Amino acid sequence: MRKLFWMIFLFGAYIWIVTSGHEEFIFDQGRAVYRAVVAWFDDADVDFQVKKVKHKKKSRRWD
After folding, report:
1. H or E stretch including 19?
2. Do 60 and 54 meet the contact criterion of CB atoms below 8 Å apart?
3. Does residue 26 contact residue 17 with C-beta atoms inside 8 Å?
4. Helices then strands (H, E): number in the chain?
């Protein structure tokens, strides 16, 4: 039921956007979000100092 609701809701939003002439506004907002995400990834520091995990030997009961 939830999938059907979201499908109808998004289809209705699509029809409203196309018929009301708001496509360019939606495209501009999408581009702004894309630029913000790209800028955030460009400024992110990457830590390459990954700690290696040594595998523990399995203990044996007879030891």
Report:
1. helix 2-20
2. no
3. yes
4. 2, 0
DSSP tag of 51: P
The span from the CA of 46 to the CA of 40, in Å, is 12
CA angle, 46 then 49 then 53, to 5°: 130
Dist CA 3 CA 11 (whole Å): 12
Summarised one tens digit per residue, pLDDT across range 1-60 is: 899 999 999 999 999 988 998 889 989 999 999 999 999 888 777 666 666 767 666 666
- The pair of structure tokens assigned to 43 is 């400024």
What distance in Å separates the CA atoms of residue 32 and residue 59, rounded to the nearest whole number? 56
| Residue partners of 22: CB distance under 8 A and separation at least 6 | 16
